From TrEMBL, chain B:
Assembly, per entry: Heterododecamer (2C3:3R2) of six catalytic PyrB chains organized as two trimers (C3), and six regulatory PyrI chains organized as three dimers (R2).
Domain Aspartate/ornithine carbamoyltransferase Asp/Orn-binding: 156-301
Keywords: Pyrimidine biosynthesis, Transferase
Domain Aspartate/ornithine carbamoyltransferase carbamoyl-P binding: 6-149
Entry GO terms, CC: cytosol
Family according to the record: Belongs to the aspartate/ornithine carbamoyltransferase superfamily. ATCase family.
GO MF term list: amino acid binding; aspartate carbamoyltransferase activity
Binding-site residues for carbamoyl phosphate, renumbered to this chain: 58-59, 108, 136, 139, 264-265
Naturally occurring in which organism (per UniProt): Candidatus Fermentithermobacillus carboniphilus
Binding site for L-aspartate: 86, 169, 223
Name the UniProt record assigns to this protein: Aspartate carbamoyltransferase
From TrEMBL, chain C:
Annotated ranges, domain Dihydroorotase catalytic: 52-239
Descriptive protein name: Dihydroorotase
Cofactor(s) the record lists: Zn(2+)
Membership in a protein family: Belongs to the metallo-dependent hydrolases superfamily. DHOase family. Class I DHOase subfamily.
GO biological process terms on file: 'de novo' UMP biosynthetic process; purine nucleobase catabolic process
Cellular component aspect of the GO annotation: cytoplasm
Protein's pathway: Pyrimidine metabolism; UMP biosynthesis via de novo pathway; (S)-dihydroorotate from bicarbonate: step 3/3
SUPFAM superfamilies recorded: Composite domain of metallo-dependent hydrolases, Metallo-dependent hydrolases
Free-text remark on how the cofactor is bound: Binds 2 Zn(2+) ions per subunit.
């Protein structure tokens, strides 16, 4: 069934403001940025992590390292998929051991991606703690996962889809909500 | 994305998109090899069976480690070639393994086409780990992977393949894979060890090693398969080395930054001199590392995406 | 005993009598009695309505392996002759590579006795040239001739040396029987699995050079010249062999030759395309397109005398293995006639009359057996073809025990419709009657 954009729920400025707020919350919660590292989940979590790191750097005048995490190898639905997901590169330019890892993704939905990401990080080492930052939390969790930092809570129905579009990946900057509709 | 066929049997039959897919997946997976804990859960509950009718250390270990790093279970069956004809047929052996629940068979066999036959016998996928004088597709892929790491492209590269092309499944896989990706491939060796009409595969053939090595970016030295020399194809190892071996003198014909490759195990002092094998130009150990990454990619792509 | 039969309304083609017209054929007591228009049958004579069909002298396959005695898991005289009858053959000549080898009169007699018991088509045993087909001592060819052997061969293998061949050809003059040689120089073909060339390079299979055959063809021709003996070359498969036969013909050297349907229709590309299907493994191996074209040309020009199947049935266990371990051979009796109609006659490469020469007249003459023609007095052996019958080759329907055929699934037009032996209809409408 085709998807139709229903409404734009965030524009460029709204996204920016949400990230600035999250950055402040991160600083506050961690009492600074000592040992804080950002890990973006491929694909759109990566530019979000980079942007957060930049904002954090400006707030605290400190460079925050950013890593990229591909969770394909940790998915729980691999053998059920005909169209196999492509394995992307995992690249963390730091050792996660004893770090405060801020995991970043665009949308939190069932929680399964985050579950896979947690396993992936733990396989790489034992961080001091892991926190989760997402731009959108749309509900409908299937496992007990919650975010530490949320840009915007968006109540949705399961028929709806949230699209986060970022300049780095999509060339535009918006969050839209769309819905499956029968063709008439 | 998924591979086109059920099996990985030859690079001749593999389309360039599938080659690219395996290589790019291997590039992502190579990172796992540098981790302190080399294990991802991807193939948990899958069983990889290595069925080797010819002795092998490197290839079998490489496949088994690749499987283990991705959490698959492995069973390993090694059968001496001599007992094959008298004992159970390949079809019976393989069908038995299949009903026990294996998910993929990685087979090495002394008869060309044996993996094609096995693929007809079995519903589960088959990966060719070397069949007779036919192909060794994962070796071809790891060779291309290694070349890409050093040269970051294949198109337009001059690759010289030296030695016993006739008996070499590695040579065939490399020729098919490299020409498909746009390399200029030449082969050189004594005429008794060059198969007929080899140039029809899109390569240049020479009897003088120097002619093939001239201006090469990559020199691929084949193992002289002494165990397959049933007839008098060359007079002695000494003479072979003097005329067809790669030594420092012949290496000078290649480009300054040319790399030297060999599929192993080497006959030092026969097809390659020790000083060349151990020189900074040699990337032979990198090939071994690439092998594990490429085989992880092959197993993932063969096993990961099917219902 | 021979029977009476009226074959009515078919197009009768008999190259020996230069006949090609719609005629009735009357067979009385198993012999051709009369060819004419509108023959009124006597009371009680069986009538075979053959309108729209082509009526030809019974086809003779001069090169088959019936495998009995010794290899009855692959084929036996009953299954083999059933396959022959289905394939439109009224007679077959069977090769001596059995176990025990057909190298003495008792094996010859046994084969003939068994074939009579089955009672379908004629079976002509070929005796071994040398004892045990070992290539050393001549076997008792005279005794075998008396017992009913029509020719001699060490087939499966060549007559081992030029000297043995020379002696055999000289010795056979007294008995007026043909020597059929399998031309192959084993030192050149040793270990080979397929034709040597680009495809063997791609497949990584050991190649058999064309010259493995041609060296032997040249030897055979020169020994035939030396002795003036009656020599027939089995299953030639290369352009070079054709050239050598032309050379022999031009110099009046007495030598005849045959080709198989598979060498006229398949190339070594199939080994690759089929993914090493062992049904493509045959000796001599499938050759290149160039060779196939040369064979077809020679066939049309008359350089080649006969089409023979080299019917080599095998048990599935002999083929459902790795390529190197598989036995060589194709089960050919039940596809040969259709293949030759579909691939040679229909495209206009050869005429129906030439087909009858290649599959009936010439084999009869080479072997020196009756038949090959419908002139009155000849045996009442007739092959009737339905030129329009279309079907797909289905190995499960083979009467032969050997289901080893690379032609499975081929769509063919034209097929044997009835087989008549001594006036007895043994196959009709593509079904066996006994």
């Amino acid at each position: 069934m085709p998807l139709f954009d229903k409404a734009e729920i965030m524009d460029k400025d709204a996204i920016r403001r949400a990230l600035v707020r999250i950055a402040h919350e991160i600083v506050e919660k961690n009492k600074g940025l000592d040992n804080v590292v950002m890990v973006g989940i491929r694909r759109r979590g990566v530019p979000l992590a980079q942007r957060l790191a930049k904002i954090l750097g400006e707030i605290e005048n400190k460079e925050v390292p950013v890593g990229e995490l591909d969770i394909t190898l940790y998915r729980d639905d691999l053998t059920m998929r005909f169209d196999q997901p492509h394995v992307g590169r995992t690249h963390l330019p730091f050792d996660v051991a004893k770090k405060k890892v801020i995991l970043v993704d665009d949308v939190l939905y069932t929680g399964r991606t985050v579950r896979a990401a947690l396993d992936a990080i733990v396989d790489l080492g034992r961080p001091e703690c892991i926190q989760l930052a997402v731009l959108i939390d749309r509900g409908h969790r299937e496992i007990p996962i919650r975010a530490d930092y949320v840009g915007k809570n968006v109540p949705t129905s399961r028929k709806e889809v949230i699209h986060v579009r970022l300049t780095e990946v999509d060339g535009v900057e918006q969050v839209v909500i769309s819905e499956e509709k029968d063709e008439e | 994305m998924a591979l086109k066929g059920k099996d990985i049997l030859s690079l001749r039959e593999m389309n360039p998109e599938d080659i690219e897919l395996i290589l790019s997946t291997a590039r992502s997976l190579k990172e796992i090899l540098s981790r302190p804990i080399k294990k991802v859960p991807t193939l948990r509950g899958k069983v990889v069976c290595t069925l080797f009718y010819e002795p092998s250390t490197r290839t079998r270990t490489s496949f088994e480690l690749a499987a283990k790093y991705m959490s698959a279970d492995t069973v390993s069956i090694a059968t001496a070639t001599s007992s094959v004809k008298k004992g159970e047929t390949l079809a019976d052996t393989a069908r038995n393994l299949e009903v026990m629940g294996i998910d993929v068979v990685v087979m090495r066999h002394s008869v060309s086409g044996a993996c094609h036959f096995l693929a007809k016998v079995l519903d589960v996928p088959v990966i060719n780990a070397g069949d007779g004088m036919h192909e060794h597709p994962t070796q071809g892929l790891l060779d291309i992977f290694t070349i890409l790491e050093y040269k970051s492209k294949i198109r337009g590269l001059k690759v010289a393949i030296l030695g016993d092309v006739l008996h070499s499944r590695v040579a065939r896989s490399d020729i098919f894979g490299l020409t498909k990706m746009g390399a200029e491939v030449s082969v050189a060796g004594p005429n008794t060890l060059l198969p007929p009409e080899i140039e029809a595969l899109g390569v240049k053939a020479y009897n003088r090693v120097e002619d093939a090595v001239e201006g090469a970016d990559v020199i691929y030295v084949l193992r002289l398969q002494l165990e397959r020399q049933t007839k008098s194809l060359f007079p002695s190892k000494r003479e072979y080395h003097d005329f067809f071996g790669l030594d420092r003198k012949r290496l000078r014909y290649a480009k300054e930054d040319a790399i030297v490759m060999h599929p192993g195990p080497m006959n030092r002092g026969v097809e390659i001199s020790t000083d060349v094998a151990d020189s900074p130009r040699s990337v032979i150990l990198d090939q071994v590392v690439s092998g594990v990454a490429v085989r992880m990619a092959a197993l993932y792509l063969i096993l990961g995406g099917r219902e | 005993m021979g029977k009476d039969l009226l074959i009515r309304g078919g197009r009768v083609i008999d190259p020996a009598a230069k006949v090609d017209e719609e005629l009735d054929v009357l067979i009385l007591e198993g012999k051709i009695a009369r060819l004419d228009k509108g023959i009124t049958p006597q009371e009680g004579i069986e009538v075979l309505d053959s309108r729209g069909k082509i009526v030809m002298p019974g086809f003779i396959d001069m090169h088959v392996h019936l495998r009995e005695p010794g290899f009855e898991d692959k084929e036996d005289i009953e299954s083999g002759t059933r396959a022959a009858a289905m394939g439109g053959f009224t007679a077959v000549a069977c090769m001596p590579n059995t176990d025990p080898v057909c190298d003495n009169d008792s094996v010859v007699a046994r084969i003939i006795k068994r074939a009579r018991e089955v009672g379908l088509v004629r079976v002509y045993p070929i005796g071994a040239v040398t004892k045990g087909r070992q290539g050393k001592e001549l076997s008792e060819m005279g005794e075998m001739r008396l017992a009913g052997a029509v020719g001699f061969s060490d087939d499966g293998a060549p007559v081992a040396s030029a000297e043995v061949l020379r002696c055999a050809l000289e010795y056979l003059k007294r008995f007026d029987a043909v020597l059929i040689d399998h031309p192959e120089d084993k030192s050149l073909s040793d270990g080979g699995q397929m034709n040597l060339g680009l495809n063997s390079t791609i497949a990584g299979l050991r190649g058999i050079p064309r010259e493995a055959e041609e060296v032997a063809v040249a030897r055979d021709i020169l020994v035939a010249k030396l002795t003036g003996g009656k020599l027939h070359l089995a299953h030639i498969s290369t352009e070079g062999s054709v050239e050598l036969v032309r050379y022999a013909r031009a110099r009046g050297i007495r030598v005849t030759c045959e080709v198989t349907p598979h060498h006229l229709t398949l190339t070594d590309d199939l080994v690759i395309e089929s993914g090493y299907d062992t049904n493509t493994k045959v000796n001599p191996p499938l050759r290149s397109r160039k060779d196939v074209e040369a064979l077809k040309q020679a066939l049309a020009e008359g350089v080649i005398d006969a089409i023979a199947t080299d019917h080599a049935p095998h048990h599935i266990d002999d083929k459902w293995v790795e390529y190197d371990y598989a036995e060589s051979g194709i089960s050919g009796l039940e596809t040969a006639v259709s293949l030759m109609i579909d691939r040679l006659v229909a495209p206009g490469l050869i005429s129906w009359s030439r087909l009858a020469e290649l599959m009936s007249l010439n084999p009869a003459r080479i072997l020196g057996v009756p038949g090959g023609t419908l002139v009155p007095g000849s045996p009442g052996d007739v092959t009737i073809i339905d030129p329009d019958f279309e079907y797909s080759v289905d190995l499960r329907k083979f009467e032969s025990k050997g289901k080893n055929s690379p032609f499975a699934g081929w769509r063919l037009t034209g097929a044997p419709w009835a087989t008549v032996v001594e006036g007895r209809v043994v196959m009709k409408d593509r079904s066996l009657l006994s």
